[in-house]
Amino acid sequence: MCWLCGNCLESVDHFFTACHFSQTVWQIVATWCHIQPIFAFHIKDLLDIHKPMNLSKRRRKALQAVIMTVIWSIWKSRNEAVFRAKDPNMKRNMEEVTGLTWDRWKSLDVNT
User: Which pTM value belongs to this model?
Assistant: First the structure.
């Protein structure tokens, strides 16, 4: 069973795209980044999400860094649940993501 939601079988695609916990994190990230809501079916969809967007090279790289940080943070939450019996916490995930990527993200004008 999924360690984040407890509802489905454990798989990479479930953890990062289908799990209610992860989907909520992705929507918070989309709002924070001022981008369209993130809908993905496979991990590759997340890794390629920046490609169709009309962004400068710097903005694409910043968004890519945010996406990879979110993936890492979700995986870290899963491992903390498995190995340390910590409950998944979206607030903690978002604090990690924003803390690790904010300096890079705020230096860009992401609204244009």
Answer: 0.83
H/E stretch holding 84 reads helix 57-84
Q: Which two tokens stand for residue 62?
A: 């910043």
Cβ–Cβ contacts within 10 Å for residue 98, how many?
A: 16
> Residues with Cβ < 8 Å from 34, sequence gap 6 or more?
110, 111
Beta carbons within 8 Å of 21's beta carbon, 6+ residues apart:
4, 5, 74, 77, 88, 90
User: In Å, what is the CA distance from 95 to each residue of 68, 102, 105?
Assistant: 15, 10, 14
DSSP 4-65: TTSSS---HHIIIIISHHHHHHHHHHHHHHT-PPP--SSHHHHHTTTTTS---HHHHHHHHH
Question: How does pLDDT run across 36-78, given as a tens digit for each residue?
Answer: 999 999 999 999 998 888 888 888 888 888 899 999 999 999 9
Q: Are 90 and 25 in contact (CB under 8 A)?
A: yes
